Amino acid sequence: MTVALEASRLTVRFGHFTAVDNVDLSIASGSRHALIGPNGAGKTSLVHALTGNVPIAGGTVRLAGETISNLGQAQRVHKGLVRTFQITQLFQSLTVLDNVCLAIFERERKTLNFWRNAGQDKAVIEEAHGHLQFVDLDGLAKRTVRSLPYGQQRLVEIAVALAARPRVLILDEPAAGVPAAQSEAIFERIQSMPKSLTLLFVEHDMGLVFRFAERISVLVNGRLLAEGTPEAISNDPRVRQVYLGRRGAHASA
Amino acid sequence: MAGLLTVVFDGVAYGMLLFLFSVGLSVTLGLMRFINLAHGAFGMVGGYVAVTLLNGFGVPFLLILPIAFILTGLFGAAAEKAMIRHVYRMPELQQVLFSIGFAFAAGAVANILFGPQQQPMILPSWLTVQVSVLGLDVTAYRLFLIGSGLLVGLLVIGLFNYTLYGAKVRAAVDLRRTAEGIGINVDRLFLVTFSLGAAFAGLGGALAVGFLGLDPTFPLKYLVIVLMVVAIGGPGSIVGSFLAALGLGVTDALFKYLVPEVGGFVIYALLVIMMVFFPKGIMERSA
Amino acid sequence: MRVTPEAGIGVVLLVAAVAAFFLFPGYLALLSTIFILAIFALSYDLLQGHAGVVSLGHAVFFGIGAYASALLGRHGIAEPIVCLLLSTLASALVAGVLTRIVVVGNDLTRLLVTLGVGFLFFEAANQANWLTGGADGMPDFEVAPILGLFPFDFLGRTAYFYTLAVLVLVYAAMLRITRSAFGLALRGIRENTMRMHAIGAPVSRHLALAYIMAGACAGAAGALLAQTSRFVSLDMLGFERSADVVVITALGGTGSIPGVVLAAAVFGYLKDALSSFSPKYWQLGIGLVLMASVFVLRQGLAGLFNVFRTGDRE
After folding, report:
1. What CA–CA distance (Å, rounded) separates B182 from A163?
2. N or C, where is chain C less crowded by C-beta within 10 Å?
3. Mutate which of C103, C199, C313 to test chain A, going by most A C-beta atoms within 10 A?
4. What is the pLDDT of residues C134-156, one digit of tens each?
């Protein structure tokens, strides 16, 4: 078992407030690993620390054995660590196709080219269509993101992340703000992702977590409370105590 | 040495005026996140009100100060209600466009009404006497400016730190939606705050006529240095503005005195350096 | 090869410009000024309309181009095209040195710093009157015939074609740049900088390149003005000149290349007609138009173009 993404004693502070406290995390290659915890537990801060969105107060992050803690977010993306955001972060007035193409251009470092017509790069455009086909949105390629309903925007967010060809993909509440029927569709797509891609996802909906996760890490008050298989976690008395209920209950967003 | 001390005195007086101008801008920026490049227009309004009252109607000097304060505040309230409150939510570019436009329009109107020349202000005799302080001879007006600035500074700090109104402002600066959630009428809060800011600027403008002069280029002339005060002091921080204003006022005066060939633009060089190294201001947000 | 709307409108504008040569032979100097203004506005549009960087000190590069050209002329390098290229290079170099200011800080600090840099250069030029002539400006520097063949004539014909030619080149270049992957990246930065980081974009590097390009182009415009008017003065560095292009891009529709050119023409014409007549009312008019522009017709003239467009581009 190789470790795709690993954090050791990771700590994040905002002023006097410690959002993430000495957290260890080890995600096996090809794993579907969920990160859960009550609101304010520090899950998103942990994700920010892994991807380089916030500075780390202590600890290290390693991607496939290589230390990346001192790299900027963009550099980590080029190493293969990509994330999606809890609140959709897309280029609203650009077309869906342009959103995905831009991710590909950046990946291939073709954005330094300021002379060649981007619309004539057949390879990039074809690949972009491919990613959109994966999320069943190819028919909407020429629409602006702004004109799409939120659920479809979440899917575009995933397509853009995939276009960056990640080795490890972190999904921060991929179905947040989306009606139940559409969140099913989103997770169905997530489940179809190749095994070569390692997935870490933050999620509140316990039903989805227990259906899709192979391993679960529980974060409470910035600390790692427990980690294990779904069965082990659902039977863990400390976890039950925190969630005030058994498997199936969820803390609403 | 005496010359140097006089310059420092002038610098302190200048700093007090800058503080008065920047108080409103600091709170507006921190509270409404509105980049108001036209804030100087309120200073100008206060100045012209003062000049009109003093020269045209012979109103006593001490009376024109509160009148300038109130009238400018009302003008600010009118502008806020009519136009400015719609601009808060607009993206940065639109805010810049609007406020530059406002500044241009205000300057042009002043030019049309009063002409491009400097406005004379005949200060009452009790303010033009020389007073001996620390062995120096300084004009009483300088002392008056410094005293007024300190008084207003204390009042403003008291207002924002020790009153219910101030607590509401600080809450809304921190988290607007939460503040609304606990029943604070944020729209009205903004209106009051904006008007107060305009009023203080107007007061500063009225005081500035006898020290800095007044003409239609006023809004843009002091724009950079007032923005600097706010940026360096940290938006939303009254104490920060006070210290930054004092520091910049004295620095500007000193450099103009000591190195007149470069003095004029040292202040801008300082701005660039500070912004490159301290992009968020020198004080962590606290009023 | 598909003719895009922008290229098509460009051709229309070019035809209009050439027609103006024959229809308004007495206004060639004004037309040259308008072409120069359009080049300056296009340079700013790259920075603000595409990359989303609001700068209130863009005239710095215009001024540097102008003064560089004048100084070269004073020291024996008077062939206009050579001067143009060297002045553009000078502006690009200064922009390169200053790139740090556009890549650090948030929107407020960037605004403030660009404003401060503008005043900094203005004051410095004012003080250094041994070099720049200070407030009096620099009136006498040599401007040789273009390529040794076409002297600048009294009627302004040479200047007209010279500035028009450069405008056409800049227009075409802007179309290419904005249609490239780099142009797409700039629009991405404008739309959502955070997302750009998250797809691995070297945002600082993109912004630096855009800034240098914009600075170089503005310098070219400044050099052209110096060469065609045979005079350089401090106002070429001043805040009003920086504000002019902010107004023009707002009117033309930020990010719309033909819109900006059209707006420059309208602005240039009105300014010439009105501001000498009554500068106070000109300033009032500008102020009111700016204030209104955030409420009505927010997309500027480009909003009118969009009516004729189909939904997608590229």
Report:
1. 44
2. N
3. C199
4. 777 777 777 777 777 777 777 77
